[in-house]
Amino acid sequence: MTAMSSGYAKLAHLSGDEFRARLPEALSLYVAAMNYPEGTAEQRAPMWLTHALRDGWRCVAALDTDDRLVGLAYGYRGTPGQWWHEQVRRGLAGREGDQAADAWLGDYFELTEIHVRPSSQGRGTGENLLRTLVDGVRHRHVLLSTPEGTSRAWKLYRRLGFTDVLRDYHFAGDPRPFAILGRTLPLE
Fold first, then answer.
1. Which pTM was predicted?
2. Phi, then psi, of 7 in degrees rounded to 5
3. In which residue ranges of the chain is pLDDT below 50?
């Protein structure tokens, strides 16, 4: 599949400065991809800026011929003390025990965000973003959370070998059930 048939012209690794410069565009893409209400972007902006400062942070963008974002994926090394790590550890240890939590959370890359514009979904962009993002990551696992329910994202994660780590989990402050999915690295 060529890049153009995937709905983008090129993939690019973004530096922290490039990510910050594109933050409004990235958050607009996020709101559109997730079908979130207006105002969500303003709430997420400080968090995304903080994420870009974390150890091991990396970001990949899918860009069209006019250099506009079609898709975006980023993540970083997960560590104790981070909100997501602590939430998942509590849930996993509570259901499966400390040993299971240690096995998954001892050395992992957190796939924090991956989004594709709705008009470009279903053409391989998400898979190319994910593969490019984790290529060369030197951690044992990659972990992510996604809302429960059938979606293109679910199909992508399953096709790439992600398995259940924790299902029907409720993060503090969000009434929706989430699945924590993971797999060993590298991807084939």
1. 0.94
2. 100, 10
3. 1-2
